[in-house]
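Researcher: Structure prediction, please.
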Amino acid sequence: MLINEVASLEESSGASLEGSFTRDLVFSKFWLMHELAQIQPHVSTMYVLGSWYGNLALYLNRYPQVRVDHIINVETDSERLNTGARMLDQAGADNVEHMLTDANQLDYRQLGRNGAVVNTSLTEITDTDWFKNIPAGTLVVMQARDQVDNEQFAGPADIAQRFPLDQVLYSGGLELEDPETEYTRFMIIGRK
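Model: Predicted structure follows.
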């Protein structure tokens, strides 16, 4: 079963909980938090789309430079969502809600003032309703990588073209290496 999951996964880090903690994935989350701290160090509610095992929520609860009152992990895989929920409960992260649903079906009703939507899975969430449904003025954080079979992103400008923001507050790239290859992860932070 795990072999089939790994074969269908586009990221080279592996489909397991252990694979979600590879150095490149951890570093990309800390990069996100560092840049977010410069832009909006307090977030009332954060939707994390394609949350996988909920690692970003774990790190946010340990990173004092960014305070998030309420985190909503959105994931379509119930096993990963449940594993992440157990991990976050054991870590004492009591500000996390776990939502088993397709990100493209969200209405962001819990977003509120000073909320944010994070999608570090642009290459896996192929429909665009998740973005279309975000209310105007909302802070949006997006990450994608190059060298992925199903969806190619050439850089931050490519993300901005596909998902236009009213105001771009950060745009950059980071050279990383997963267990199999070197790649570039791109990130854009801005207001829709």
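Model: The longest helix spans residues 23-39.
Researcher: Thanks, that helps.
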